[in-house]
């Protein structure tokens, strides 16, 4: 079994991180500037998150829309990985290019657009462990 019990726990953690990012005044505008729709497809457990930076956000205070679960949006970039890889990534423990080279993360679409987002999301490396502790999941924090 992986880090997450099920998709519900995944969405309560990594999903919640994406929900924070979309309203964060330091992170959200940088993601919005990308102007792309990026979809993350996870396995073990199965989960799906789509970030829409193309359209105007529908939620007040958000810079982008984040959808957890199926959507009719067509993604410009799709990133597929095990949920455990995402968990380690948000701790800052995964080198993106190395993970892509090893096929731990499979990217469909223009890789340069993904790489341009990396500096925008790096502040989430500090936020994710805090979020886990806030949710009573300190045992999931990677030291």
Tell me about this structure.
30% of the residues are buried. The chain is built from six helices and five strands. Helices cover 41% and strands 19% of the residues. The protein has a five-stranded mixed sheet with strand order 3-2-1-4-5. It has one domain (7-132): Nonspecific Lipid-transfer Protein, Chain A. The model has no long low-confidence stretch (mean pLDDT 96). The protein is globular and about 35 Å long. α1 packs across α6 (124-134). With 143 residues, it is of the alpha+beta class.
Strand numbers in spatial order across the main sheet: 3-2-1-4-5
State the CATH architecture.
2-Layer Sandwich
Largest sheet: 5 strands, mixed
Radius of gyration: 14 Å
CATH-assigned fold name: Nonspecific Lipid-transfer Protein, Chain A
Helix content: 40-55%
Count of all domains: 1
Mean pLDDT: 96
Structural class call reads alpha+beta
What global shape is seen?
A: globular
Q: What is the name of the CATH class?
A: Alpha Beta
Summarize the helix and strand pattern as letters: HHEEEEHHEHH
Strand content: 15-25%
Q: So how many helices?
A: 6
Residue stretches low in confidence (pLDDT < 50, at least 5 long) are none
* DSSP E strands, number: 5
CATH evolutionary superfamily: SCP2 sterol-binding domain
């Amino acid at each position: 079994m992986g880090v997450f019990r099920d998709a519900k726990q995944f969405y309560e953690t990594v999903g919640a991180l994406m929900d924070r990012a979309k309203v964060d005044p330091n992170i959200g505008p940088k993601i919005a500037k990308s102007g792309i729709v990026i979809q993350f497809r996870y396995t073990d457990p199965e989960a799906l998150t789509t970030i829409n930076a193309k359209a105007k956000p529908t939620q007040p205070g958000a810079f982008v829309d984040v959808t957890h679960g199926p959507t009719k949006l067509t993604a410009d970039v799709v990133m597929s990985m095990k949920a455990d890889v995402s968990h380690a990534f948000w701790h800052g423990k995964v080198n993106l290019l190395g993970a892509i080279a090893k096929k731990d993360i499979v990217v469909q679409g223009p890789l340069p657009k993904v790489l341009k987002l990396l500096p925008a999301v790096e502040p989430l490396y500090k936020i994710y462990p805090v979020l886990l502790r806030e949710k009573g999941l300190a045992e999931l924090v990677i030291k």
